[in-house]
Design brief:
The chain is an all-alpha fold and about 200 residues long. It has one domain. It contains 9 helices and no strands. Helix 1 crosses helix 3, helix 3 crosses helix 8 and helix 5 runs parallel beside helix 8. The relative contact order is 0.16.
Length: about 200
Amino acid sequence: MSELIIDFIGRWSYFGIALLMALENIFPPIPSELIMPFAGYVAARGDLNIAGVVVAGVLGSLAGTLPWYWLGRSIGRERLARWVGARGRWFTISPEELERAERWFLRRGGWALLAGRLVPAVRSVISMPAGVAAMPLPSMLAWSACGTLLWTGMLAGLGFALESRYERIAGFVDKLSMAVVILLVVSYAWRVIRFRPGPR
């Protein structure tokens, strides 16, 4: 996978980084934990500018948050609550847990978005509760941009700093990313099996 990402970025440059990061946010086929370090590695080879790599990563990531945000806006709180009430097992959340999560998000607001953008898996869908809560779009983008800049900058900087050594650990990173995906799938399956609806 590492060579495929590096070749894609090498061919499509900054647009390729933005496209991969947008897709990673809409439906994570390739985690940003691979995309941005490899983009930083390509910059370290002198093929791209590291600042441009970070900007492309941020813009692509923000573009990827919009479908989740608008999905949350279109669903709304009442419809989401009905879905959770009817299909809570597949959401692995009860109506009571949904209500507590909503109260927490409303209290934390932008800080919840910023922090969520730094957490793998969560970062892809954190804009959906912002949409459900009807957070203004400019605010959602501003808070998301802050968290995304920290995340993409850190990952790109890691790849840039490692330079040629990154090739030696690419295989390890591939295995680690696969392990993360497997862990997420197993964790979700376990939550579905162990799910118990709250009191009615």
